[in-house]
Design a protein that fits this description.
The structure holds 2 protein chains of 2 kinds. Chain A is 24% helix and 26% strand. Chain A is of the alpha+beta class. The model of chain A has no long low-confidence stretch (mean pLDDT 90). Chain B has 18 helices and 21 strands. In chain B, the strands form 4 sheets. In chain B, strands 16, 17, 18, 19, 20 and 21 form a 6-stranded mixed sheet that branches. Chain B has a 5-stranded antiparallel sheet with strand order 1-2-5-4-13. Chain B has a 5-stranded antiparallel sheet with strand order 3-14-15-12-11. The longest helix of chain B is centred in the N-terminal third of the chain and has 22 residues. The radius of gyration of chain B is 23 Å and the shape is globular. The termini of chain B are far apart. Classes of the chains: A alpha+beta, B alpha+beta. Chains A and B meet through α2 of A and α14 of B. The complex binds iron/sulfur cluster.
Chain lengths: 100, 557
């Protein structure tokens, strides 16, 4: 299963994902997809460093369904984290300030 | 309403300053998350699924229009334009930024509200009857004692690190609108044999994964001993409660383990030891606090019921609203008006900043500037002139605050669930919305009558599912959201916990299951019997058969 790293940004708590260069991005569509466990764990160490550096809180790996050309989270919880409350799509705004 | 004195103001402002400093140290990396987390939680700041969530206490659910306007301002300035009223008479904001929280708290402090002790293992917001001070059957205004207890327990060093959170509720009426039997301490006012007002004290109630109806620890307690007795209960709990297992840490567990008689003995020993010292409440202090809750200057008004009858005859919608949402006031010519936050398609308990501002304006115009929030996530205007009811109703309609469903099946308690909450197993809100879509026939809802449906997204039971006539609990089955139904719960003076109906259902089957339960009830009820009474008389079997079919009645997952 493909994976991605999710976390909360310390300063505002918004959901962020690790991008391809270890940077943090606000939208799941820009998150880096790790195809194997080795890569995923290696980048998780980088994420832990971001915790130490007080940039992010609570990073962890999530399963991603990358088929169909789009990175989509697996399961209700991560889908809701990625796209906002399923009952208030009118309020969707990601960490880049898009939407809303 | 209670107004902060100099001491309260100073305390809250110092607390904001302290938190400002803590946030700065966290953002600079001087504090780790592990060090910072308990500090933010003590100020009501959680980290949830989408962002930081701030929980703000509305002490015993009473608010002024000024406070409501501030809530609107906060929603607009610091969040995404709305807030959520919870079952604990709090308001929650879902997208608060850590760096902005100190400013936000400073703004709230201006109107005398805080997030202090809205989280953590301390005494939480003390809750009460939303009709307090305005209802005929009341013996005395419970808010006076809520406020005394609030002042006593806020930042009390001994009780800031209890084994687990601690909830207190107070009612001054025999009709329990505050669910006191579901609290760690429940206080129920009544008269003793010599006609003196005091409290029946209940202890060890609670919901969560181990629901328990509180037991009476003292039949009658004189008000001047309230602090000493509550202190004795808290101290015995603090010393004996378990800290090794979060699921066994609430007072209900220790009361069950020791037995109520032994717990009472320990409390009485401690109470006898301390009651003579300064912990008695001087009568002057009770009077001082009472003065804050003195009734407003009511006008001498004629009874307007006859004129209202004419208006009701002329307009069915107004008539429905009057029957459902308006309660009798203790003063002639006045009424209590419930503003339901339960319009179809709306998220129960949610309210936009625009609506909050409008509510504040209407409270000024029609309710002497005061309102309440109740544990069923509705708002209440407590001092409306009967002669204004029709005008008010017309203004509430466009704001979607006049849905005439108070106490009916569609007036559901719904926790935020997996749409917001980190601890959730399943979504609660879409379930409520699905049920709402099924029950649109107003006449049918009226025929069904009193019927509470309470929904929680996990075992923590913030949505009070154990005490819903129908309770719905979200469970996770191999990564899929399922819903477990219970029947027969109630949170009033005859509190009871619901019994499990059978195997959990997928979301799409829940409305049909409720439909089957309702149909069965309508078939077998006697006269105007409430659902709860029918269930208590007949039991589970017909409902189980209706939902699962007779072959399936023994299957429980
Ligand atoms: S009941 Fe569970 S899901 Fe609902 S708000 Fe409480 S903790 Fe969250």
């Amino acid at each position: 299963m493909s994976q991605m790293i999710i976390a909360n940004r310390l300063i505002d708590g918004l959901v962020i994902y690790m991008g391809p260069k270890g940077e943090w991005v606000g939208s799941i569509s820009e998150g880096a997809v790790f195809e194997n466990e080795h890569d995923a764990q290696r980048w998780l160490v980088v994420a832990q460093q971001a915790v130490e550096d007080s940039v992010v809180v609570d990073p962890y790996l999530i399963d991603i369904d990358a088929g169909g050309g789009k990175s989509l989270p697996v399961g209700a919880r991560e889908t809701i984290r990625a796209f906002g409350p399923s009952v208030r799509t009118d309020l969707l705004e990601d960490a880049e300030g898009n939407g809303g | 309403m209670y107004r902060y004195d100099e001491f309260d103001h100073k305390l809250v402002q110092e607390r904001v300053q302290q938190f400002r400093h803590q946030v700065k140290r966290r953002l600079s990396g001087e504090l780790t998350e592990d060090q910072f987390k308990p500090l933010r939680l003590m100020n009501g700041l959680y980290l949830q699924l989408h962002a930081y969530m701030l929980r703000v206490n509305v002490p015993y659910g009473a608010m002024t229009s000024r406070q409501m306007r501030k809530f609107a301002h906060v929603a607009r300035t610091y969040d995404r334009g709305f807030g959520h009223f919870t079952t604990r008479q709090n308001i929650q904001y879902n997208w608060v930024k850590l760096e902005e929280t100190p400013n936000l708290l400073a703004e709230l402090a201006e109107v005398e509200v805080t997030g202090i002790q809205s989280s953590g293992n301390c005494v939480r917001n003390i809750t009460s009857d939303h009709y307090a001070g305005r209802i005929k059957d009341e013996l005395a205004d419970p808010r006076v004692y809520c406020e005394l207890l609030r002042q006593y327990t806020v930042l009390h060093p001994e009780f800031s690190f209890l084994p687990r959170k601690f909830k207190i509720a107070v009612t001054g009426s025999p009709k329990d609108r505050a669910a006191v039997a579901l609290h760690d301490i429940g206080l129920r006012m009544h008269l003793n044999d010599s006609g003196k007002l005091g409290f029946e004290v209940l202890v060890g109630g609670g919901q969560g994964r181990t629901p328990v109806i509180a037991k009476t620890i003292r039949e009658w307690l004189s008000p001047e001993h309230l602090m000493a007795y509550v202190e004795a209960i808290l101290r015995v709990y603090n010393l004996n409660g378990r800290r090794d297992n979060i699921h066994k840490a609430r007072i209900k567990i220790i009361v069950n383990q020791l037995g109520i008689d032994r717990y009472r003995e320990l409390v009485d020993q401690e109470f006898d030891r301390i009651k003579g010292d300064v912990k008695g409440i001087p009568e002057a202090e009770i009077q001082r606090i009472k003065a804050y809750f003195a009734p407003p200057e009511y006008e001498e008004l004629p009874d307007f019921t006859d004129k209202l009858s004419t208006l009701r005859l002329a307009d069915k919608a107004f008539d429905l609203w009057m029957s459902s949402n308006v309660a009798e006031h203790k003063i002639r010519g006045y009424a209590i008006v419930n503003l339901t936050l339960k319009a179809p398609d709306r998220v129960p308990g949610d309210i936009t900043a625009t609506a909050m501002d409008a509510v504040a304006d209407l409270a000024d115009e029609y309710s002497l500037g005061e309102m309440r929030v109740n544990h069923r996530q509705n708002l209440v205007f407590v001092d409306v002139k009967q002669m204004d009811l029709h005008n008010l109703w017309q203004k509430l309609g466009p704001l979607e605050l006049a849905t005439p469903n108070l106490g009916q099946l569609t007036d559901m308690i719904t926790c935020p669930g997996l749409d917001y909450c980190n601890l959730a197993n399943a979504r609660s809100i879409p379930v409520a919305q699905d049920i709402n879509k099924h029950f649109v026939d107003v006449d049918r809802l009226i025929a069904i009558g009193d019927f509470t449906v309470n929904i929680s997204g996990c075992m923590n039971a913030c949505g009070h599912h154990h005490v819903g006539n129908v309770g719905i609990l979200g469970v996770d089955k191999h990564g899929t959201e399922f819903f477990q139904l219970t029947l027969g719960g109630s949170s009033d003076e005859g509190a009871s916990l619901g019994d499990r109906l059978g195997r959990a259902l997928p979301q799409e089957e829940v409305p049909a299951a409720i439909e089957a339960i309702v149909d069965t009830y309508m078939d077998i009820r006697e006269d105007d019997e409430r659902f709860l009474d029918t269930y208590r008389r007949i039991g589970m079997v017909p409902f189980k058969e209706a939902v699962y079919g007779s072959a399936d009645t023994k299957v429980v997952v």
